[in-house]
Amino acid sequence: MSGRADEIAANLDAVRRRIRDACTEAGRPEDDVSLVVVTKFFPASDVRVLADLGVTDVGENRHQEAEAKAAECADLGLRWHFIGGLQSNKAAAVAAYADVVESVDRAKLVGPLSRGARARGAEVDVLLQVSLDPPGADHRSGAAPADLPDLARRVVEADLLRLRGLMAVAPLGEDPRTAFARLADVREELVREHPGATVLSAGMSGDLEAAIACGATHVRVGSAVLGPRPAVQ
Ligand SMILES: *Cc1c(COP(=O)(O)O)cnc(C)c1O
Question: What are phi and psi for residue 107, nearest 5 degrees?
């Protein structure tokens, strides 16, 4: 193995151990929680290393980079998660390669995603991104919890989109456990209406334990596996 592969393997072991420990702590079976490795800013060669190490799910947040990497790694059979801000004029193109679109936060995205899925000839899994920011916060990304019922219904009614659950990012400046506890309530309400929408994508390198304690089924981990990203984002 190259030095880079050794480094990634060691980091991946440590993250898998953190997930196992957090599951034990929460009294959950460890196969309750899936790892999505966030590969943004890292090259396709790292994605190959990850696939060799048994990673099945990878996440990207910028369309052009994601599209190119997914094409370069098409032979690996990975599930590609799109986790970034989504422009409606790019949504159809994202649905052409993303198996899961985690960042659906407004109704305007639903039509283009559905058209993209039809062009691809495959179903696309959808998570609704919900904002955990206090109402009125600037730069909110994610739908307000009050807007979820309508958004969920639109996804369910769209051809070839499968409503699978929710995604969220803990806001800066708040204990992630407090934020993820609110998320657990929002999820409970969604699942009451949509019993199949049980996925909860929450938790990153810094707060995956808090997310698992609050019911996350998917954690999105970048830097703890691949190292620090370049400063420019
Ligand atoms: C970059 C990113 C992550 C991974 O963050 P790390 O702190 O590097 O683990 C998770 N979720 C989203 C939405 C991201 O953009």
Answer: -60, -30
- Enter the DSSP assignment of 130: B
Q: Is 221 in the pocket of ligand 1 (CB under 6 A)?
A: yes
* Domains in the chain with CATH codes: 3-226 (3.20.20.10)
pTM: 0.96
pLDDT in tens, 142-184: 999 999 999 999 999 999 999 999 999 999 989 999 999 999 9
Which tens digits make up the pLDDT trace of 175-222?
999 999 999 999 999 999 999 999 999 999 999 999 999 999 999 999
Nearest by Cα to 166 from 185, 78, 99: 185
Whether residue 64 has pLDDT greater than 80 = yes
* Ligand 1 contacts CB of residue 55 (under 6 A): no
Which atom belonging to ligand 1 lies closest to the Cα atom of 205?
9
What contacts 190, CB < 8 A, 6 or more positions away? 128, 148, 152, 165, 166, 197
Residues whose CB is less than 8 angstroms from the CB of residue 133 and which lie 6 or more positions away in sequence, other chains included? 140, 142, 171
220 pocket-lining for ligand 1 (C-beta < 6 Å): yes
Distance from the alpha carbon of residue 155 to the mean position of ligand 1, in angstroms: 24
Q: Is 83 in the pocket of ligand 1 (CB under 6 A)?
A: yes
